[in-house]
Amino acid sequence: MSAPTSISDSSFQAPSSDVVAKHNAVVLAVAMALGGSSPAIVVSLGGLVGQALASNRELATLPVSLLNLGLALGTIPAALLMRKAGRRIGYIIGAGIGLAGGCLAAFGIASFSFTLFCLGTLIIGSYGSFNQSYRFAATDSASESFKPRAISWVMTGGLVAGVIGPQTVIWTRDAVQAAPFAGAFLAQATLALLSMIAISFLRPAPVSPTSTKAAGRPLIEIVRQPRFIVAAVTGLVSYSLMTFIMTAAPLAMIDCGHSIGAAALGIQWHILAMFGPSFFTGRLIARFGKGKVTATGLVLIALSALIGLSGIGIAHFWTALILLGVGWNFGFIGATALVTDCYRPEERAKVQAANDFLIFGSVAIASFSSGKLLSAGGWESVNWLVFPPVLIALVLLAWQQRTKAIAPA
């Protein structure tokens, strides 16, 4: 999407329908299907490669943690780039970054360099910061009624990614015989290249002349709004806890005697559960409201931790990961929809970047702490720490809903 530097009143026409929004949502869904497979590849193999290359077992999950750190660090630069160059150019550059990261990670494996492999996953993470903003890009030209559905449409691309990513691991992990798992990261780089082609079909969204001239409110004023705080906290809790458990799960499964294939399939079912509900999450939000759907997601995340505490069989791990995925979908899409209520058109770039920086900064912290906690306290400790954040987020949501209910008409 090109970002016009100026536009006259006569050249602007308000969209009479969501034609552009629907086209872009489909394009972004395809790009998500391709680019969204990158985290699945890193999560499935990052800890295993880390175990093979790192001198200290506690560093095994560092590559996955750096994926999330790269995502957090990339959010603001990605937003600034897209504000200056436009969505389409920004996303093409982002895909190029993903391609470079995959090649570097593969080279790190081939050269037995833990440092280079970690740098590769960090760069792949920064590619993810572009992909994560697809959900906001889908709302740029959407009407208020179509926004939740536009977000859901984009997130359905992750359903395909949930198949592509783990299957890429299974089919290509031994493609380079001299360097096990390097083939999967070369395949990840190829998928990033394909997403670059897909995103070239993105159309510019109609832009109001007012939004191109006004700077909007100061960011500090926007983020201090109670409704932004609730939206950011619920998104932060949903995504951080999902990452916290997902990062530890593959290693926990292997520690419990399960195979690498079982761990990869567990991640596949998890990712399918993350994005599969997107076919109807937007409609659920339209019917029941953003707050109720978000709260349901948080409850499902807590339930996944309860399942994780109940046993260590494959069924326990897979069931917990599936519930975790569905909970993330409801919680994160609901929180994203809540964020779109907090800004004006001219403010969206900085507010979206601030929201994602908060979320993915917390995700990086959760990922870093997950591996150490798993090593120190085991799988049970990972699950017990889910409940306090969920409770806090649910209390904030309940407070917001109560405030709305008693507010004067």
UniProtKB/TrEMBL annotation:
<dbReference type="InterPro" id="IPR020846">
    <property type="entry name" value="MFS_dom"/>
</dbReference>
<feature type="transmembrane region" description="Helical">
    <location>
        <begin position="178"/>
        <end position="202"/>
    </location>
</feature>
<feature type="transmembrane region" description="Helical">
    <location>
        <begin position="260"/>
        <end position="281"/>
    </location>
</feature>
<feature type="transmembrane region" description="Helical">
    <location>
        <begin position="320"/>
        <end position="339"/>
    </location>
</feature>
<dbReference type="InterPro" id="IPR036259">
    <property type="entry name" value="MFS_trans_sf"/>
</dbReference>
<feature type="transmembrane region" description="Helical">
    <location>
        <begin position="228"/>
        <end position="254"/>
    </location>
</feature>
<feature type="transmembrane region" description="Helical">
    <location>
        <begin position="113"/>
        <end position="130"/>
    </location>
</feature>
<keyword id="KW-0472">Membrane</keyword>
<dbReference type="InterPro" id="IPR011701">
    <property type="entry name" value="MFS"/>
</dbReference>
<feature type="transmembrane region" description="Helical">
    <location>
        <begin position="381"/>
        <end position="399"/>
    </location>
</feature>
<feature type="transmembrane region" description="Helical">
    <location>
        <begin position="150"/>
        <end position="172"/>
    </location>
</feature>
<protein>
    <submittedName>
        <fullName>MFS transporter</fullName>
    </submittedName>
</protein>
<feature type="transmembrane region" description="Helical">
    <location>
        <begin position="89"/>
        <end position="107"/>
    </location>
</feature>
<keyword id="KW-0812">Transmembrane</keyword>
<feature type="transmembrane region" description="Helical">
    <location>
        <begin position="293"/>
        <end position="314"/>
    </location>
</feature>
<keyword id="KW-1133">Transmembrane helix</keyword>
<feature type="transmembrane region" description="Helical">
    <location>
        <begin position="60"/>
        <end position="82"/>
    </location>
</feature>
<dbReference type="GO" id="GO:0022857">
    <property type="term" value="F:transmembrane transporter activity"/>
</dbReference>
<feature type="transmembrane region" description="Helical">
    <location>
        <begin position="25"/>
        <end position="48"/>
    </location>
</feature>
<feature type="transmembrane region" description="Helical">
    <location>
        <begin position="351"/>
        <end position="369"/>
    </location>
</feature>
<dbReference type="Pfam" id="PF07690">
    <property type="entry name" value="MFS_1"/>
</dbReference>
<feature type="domain" description="Major facilitator superfamily (MFS) profile">
    <location>
        <begin position="227"/>
        <end position="409"/>
    </location>
</feature>
